[in-house]
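Why should sequence recovery work at all? Because a backbone constrains its sequence more than one might expect. Tight turns favour small or flexible residues, buried strands favour hydrophobic ones, and helices have their own preferences. The token representation captures these environments compactly. In the example below, the structure is given first.
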């Protein structure tokens, strides 16, 4: 690759983008104008946001004690009000009239009946009120212009049968904001009044208040003001930078790919002496430049506008958080982290934009990228998110957590996990860049013709133009459909209480919800359903070799499982799951039934789906590992827990490799069955049952629970055999192309070049 050509293409694309007024406005002008305008609008709206006084009707004021009275001169005693609320509580204490007395009857609100069904949070739940009474009382409150009604019953603060059972009734309307706020204010007022009465009563009885409050809790905050501000900025700044880095990369990428297709300049560029790789790198540097520029401009504009708004509101007397100026070093760390992140987003956007046939179509692809990226950006904002080995291996999230640690001056923690974060980020960048280069090397992707889409035409083409194998999109649709079915199944499924309930649920899941849709799609969408499901001829040796590979690689899979559980430990609530599985195993009539449910049934249903229809559809793209990894990703995602999904993805990759190399689903079924059967058997067998044989003692030893675990010698011997089996499959002659043409492709092949699609 010649960097001189890359530099020329970079300068060409950069000049073209800078000449585009829409791009300049979106990237440079809009951030400088948008945030100040939003800040001014916010300040104008803040003038309308104020607290209104609460109008409260109090009934039974005469029942209150006179000592330390709550009501003074027809107002709430200021001792029981927060200073900021002293002008916000307006009470009315006039005498009751017939309209009030219609509802406030002694048998409903007296002290003796108050404890039967206490009124909580101002809701009308007293037994004496029907729904019609509640509706009518709400109308009275509205007609009287009262936000909240407080009733103090007779016998207030008096002992009844040796106990205090007095209840103050607060009637409000939770559907109305002012009424809800009024009720909250009165609850706090009566809470302070109650505390004062408790102290007074104890003093009368010559009892110290220490008896009921023997100690106080003093929460001393050791953090400085600078550290508090850094903690806030460490969450806000990375999120703003990351979201705008994605947005800033996507639109230039669309214009550099789909836009050039529409303008007809892409063919001229591809016919130049520069290679496809050099063209991709030149365009990539252009998109990175705009991604970083957009992110930084939005960052500075938003930061200074936010400070201006906060300072302006502080001068207006509003309660605001004193954020201060972001730490200067934070911007340095953000720029450093922005380089690999902008490269990741830019390469992804470039690859997807090259697939689009028009700028309009390219804009539709932004939503899937946002749906994948936003959860990864939101994870570090969660209160319990911490930087550890597990989170450092998550793309985007790990980088945001490292930035958070650096901005908060926790350098030791950041440096401890900087290597895995940078490693994951760089690997993702390289993979996505390679994908973009592959997209530009595929002329079927670059020069796809625009087409009209109709629902009727689409469904008719599924039947008329179906081939012997599913298409790539049909394979993806099948995987997504199984994920959706799995999601809703998890919502409605109940926890099985016995082996028979578990057996019924397992049969319904695998036969009805996995095999059913897959078999239906194979019959409807393909002309040869058995071949579409993977039932093709293969060497007979692939079957025993698949079993040997499954058994001999089991120690490696077990070690990988233990590593995953160390990086992502199981939560405490998994103990209930383990107890449930123990109940299921114990209740099984025979161990053979466990093998059938946990080994044979998944080996048939899941292989028909993921290594059958889905893998055969994905392999139409022409790349072996893309098809294997995508099908394994679907396979892992159908498992419930994160730990199970990661382990299933690793195992599914091995099974997919066996199925692809053998050209048939039968070796994959043998591998899947052998792996599951061995896993279940080792979990149910005690080492004491195997210790009598020297052969078993060489391979296994007892773990903490008494179950067999691999010895060091057994681990290396079996792993060596497994690697040998893997190499045997790798050296298999790949079968003739499974990607067969559909009738529509044959028709296109007979048409002369240049004819419309």
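From this structural description, the recovered sequence reads:
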């Amino acid at each position: 690759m010649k960097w001189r050509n890359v530099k020329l293409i970079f300068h060409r694309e950069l000049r073209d983008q800078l000449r585009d007024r829409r791009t300049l406005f979106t990237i440079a002008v809009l951030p400088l104008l948008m945030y100040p305008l939003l800040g001014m609008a916010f300040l104008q709206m803040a003038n309308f946001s104020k607290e209104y006084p609460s109008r409260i009707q109090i009934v039974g004021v005469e029942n209150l004690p006179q000592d330390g009275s709550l009501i003074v001169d027809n107002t709430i005693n200021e001792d029981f009000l927060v200073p900021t609320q002293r002008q916000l509580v307006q009470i009315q204490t006039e005498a009751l009239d017939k309209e009030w007395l219609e509802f406030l009857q002694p048998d409903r609100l007296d002290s003796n009946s108050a404890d039967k069904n206490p009124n909580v949070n101002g809701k009308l739940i007293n037994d004496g009120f029907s729904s019609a009474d509640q509706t009518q009382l709400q109308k009275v409150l509205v007609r009287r212009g009262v936000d909240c009604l407080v009733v103090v019953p007779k016998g207030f603060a008096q002992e009844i049968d040796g106990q205090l059972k007095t209840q103050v009734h607060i009637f409000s309307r939770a559907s109305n904001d002012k009424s809800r706020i009024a009720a909250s204010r009165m609850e706090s007022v009566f809470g302070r009044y109650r505390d004062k009465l408790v102290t007074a009563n104890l003093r009368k009885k010559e009892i110290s208040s220490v008896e009921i409050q023997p100690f106080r809790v003093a929460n001393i905050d050791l953090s400085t003001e600078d550290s508090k501000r850094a903690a806030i900025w460490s969450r806000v700044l990375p999120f703003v930078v990351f979201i705008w880095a994605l947005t800033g990369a996507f639109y230039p990428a669309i214009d550099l790919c789909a836009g050039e297709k529409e303008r007809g300049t892409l063919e001229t560029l591809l016919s130049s002496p520069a290679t496809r790789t050099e063209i991709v790198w030149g365009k990539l540097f252009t998109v990175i430049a705009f991604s970083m520029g957009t992110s930084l401009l939005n960052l500075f504009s938003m930061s200074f506008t936010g400070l201006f708004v906060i300072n302006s509101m502080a001068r207006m007397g509003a309660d605001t958080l004193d954020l201060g100026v972001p730490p200067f070093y934070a911007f340095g760390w953000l720029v450093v982290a922005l380089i690999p992140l902008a490269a990741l987003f830019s390469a992804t956007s470039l690859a997807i934009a090259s697939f689009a046939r028009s700028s309009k179509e390219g804009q539709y692809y932004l939503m899937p990228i946002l749906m994948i990226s936003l959860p990864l950006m939101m994870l570090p904002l969660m209160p319990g998110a911490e930087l550890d080995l597990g989170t450092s291996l998550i793309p985007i999230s790990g980088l945001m957590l490292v930035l958070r640690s650096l901005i908060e001056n926790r350098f030791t923690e950041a440096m401890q996990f900087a290597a895995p974060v940078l490693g994951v980020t760089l690997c993702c960048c390289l993979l996505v860049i390679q994908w973009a280069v592959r997209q530009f090397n595929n002329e079927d992707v670059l020069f796809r013709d625009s087409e009209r889409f109709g629902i009727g035409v689409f469904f008719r083409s599924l039947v008329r133009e179906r081939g012997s194998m599913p298409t790539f999109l049909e394979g993806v649709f099948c995987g997504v459909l199984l994920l959706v079915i799995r999601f809703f199944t998890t919502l409605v499924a109940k926890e099985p209480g016995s082996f028979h309930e578990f057996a019924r649920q397992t049969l319904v899941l695998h036969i009805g919800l996995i095999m059913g849709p897959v078999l239906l799609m194979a019959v409807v969408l393909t002309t040869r359903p058995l071949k579409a499901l993977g039932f093709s001829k293969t060497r007979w040796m692939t079957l025993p070799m698949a079993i040997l590979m499954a058994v001999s690689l089991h120690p490696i899979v077990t070690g990988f499982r233990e590593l995953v559980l160390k990086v992502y430990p199981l939560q405490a609530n998994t103990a209930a799951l383990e107890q449930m599985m123990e109940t299921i195993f114990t209740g099984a009539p025979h161990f053979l039934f466990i093998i059938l449910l946990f080994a044979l049934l998944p080996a048939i249903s899941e292989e028909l789906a993921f290594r059958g229809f889905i893998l055969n559809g994905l392999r139409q793209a022409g790349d072996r590992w893309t098809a294997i990894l995508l099908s394994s990703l679907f396979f892992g995602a159908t498992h419930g827990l994160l730990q199970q999904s990661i382990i299933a993805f690793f195992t599914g990759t091995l099974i997919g490799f066996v199925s692809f190399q053998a050209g048939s689903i039968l070796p994959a079924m043998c591998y899947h069955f052998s792996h599951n059967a061995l896993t279940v058997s080792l979990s149910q067998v005690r080492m004491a049952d195997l210790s009598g044989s020297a052969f078993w003692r060489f391979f296994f030893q007892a773990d903490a629970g008494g179950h067999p675990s691999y010895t060091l010698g057994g681990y290396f011997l079996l792993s060596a055999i497994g690697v040998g089996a893997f190499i045997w499959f790798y050296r298999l002659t790949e079968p003739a192309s499974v990607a067969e043409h559909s009738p529509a492709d044959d028709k296109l092949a007979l048409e002369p070049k240049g004819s419309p699609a």
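A few observations help interpret the result. Residues 106-127, 735-757 have pLDDT under 50 and may be disordered.
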